[in-house]
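Priority: medium. Attachment 1 of 2:
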């Protein structure tokens, strides 16, 4: 049969339980309350400071794109275009006028009197006369041509400048066995505008025909040409020439 607890045992058990939980149920003293209030105040200040920092951060981030955005560039105004008043039309250039043809002092042998003409220089827009450069006539240069037909020489001067006299000569040599040449015959002629063509007989040696030359001007004619002398006359004076034969006797 189970034994019922006694009253004093139950009382002791409750007393022990009350003693163990009494520190937890009894309100703290004045010091504990003061510490608790101080801790709560510190936590409140820290929370307020953190909230202020968060708000400042959000405001700064919100303003950051506006600060980084480049300032708008003002459109440049187009430069004003200055228009000048229309200038007065310039007078047209006057065409050159020719004066009546009049005979000059000089005459041409074939065409008769030489006609001269004058022209009025055109006026430039500024009123100054523009003078066109006058072309100089080409300098006259006569030329001598030679052709041979059988035993004759045909010498022609074309052209012959006005007032010019052209001296020409033909020379023949006789060949010798040592290779030298001896003067055989020669003739001096004159060409002018009135007589610009001459036909003459070329006289050559009947035994050993040497070289012949047609010369312009009045160069000296050597009586003998050595075998090694290949240019017996000054340069520019020989108009035509032909080598002779080799003579063995």
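Attachment 2 of 2:
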């Amino acid at each position: 049969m189970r034994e019922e607890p006694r009253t004093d045992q139950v009382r002791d058990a409750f007393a022990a339980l009350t003693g163990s939980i009494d520190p937890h149920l009894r309100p703290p003293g004045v010091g504990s309350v003061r510490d608790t209030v101080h801790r709560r105040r510190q936590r409140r200040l820290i929370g307020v400071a953190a909230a202020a920092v968060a708000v400042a951060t959000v405001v700064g981030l919100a303003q950051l794109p506006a600060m980084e955005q480049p300032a708008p560039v003002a459109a440049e105004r187009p430069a004003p275009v200055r228009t000048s008043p229309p200038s007065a039309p310039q007078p047209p250039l006057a065409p050159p006028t020719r004066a009546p043809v009049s005979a000059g002092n000089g005459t041409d042998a074939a065409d008769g009197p030489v006609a001269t003409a004058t022209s009025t220089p055109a006026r430039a827009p500024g009123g100054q006369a523009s003078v066109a450069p006058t072309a100089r006539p080409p300098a006259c240069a006569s030329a001598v041509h030679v052709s041979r037909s059988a035993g004759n020489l045909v010498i022609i001067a074309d052209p012959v400048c006005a007032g010019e006299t052209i001296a020409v000569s033909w020379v023949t040599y006789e060949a010798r066995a040592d290779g030298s040449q001896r003067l055989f015959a020669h003739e001096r002629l004159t060409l002018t505008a009135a007589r610009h063509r001459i036909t003459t007989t070329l006289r050559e040696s009947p035994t050993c025909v040497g070289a012949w030359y047609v010369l312009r001007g009045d160069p000296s004619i050597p009586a003998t040409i050595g075998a090694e002398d290949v240019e017996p006359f000054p340069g520019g004076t020989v108009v035509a020439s032909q080598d002779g034969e080799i003579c063995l006797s």
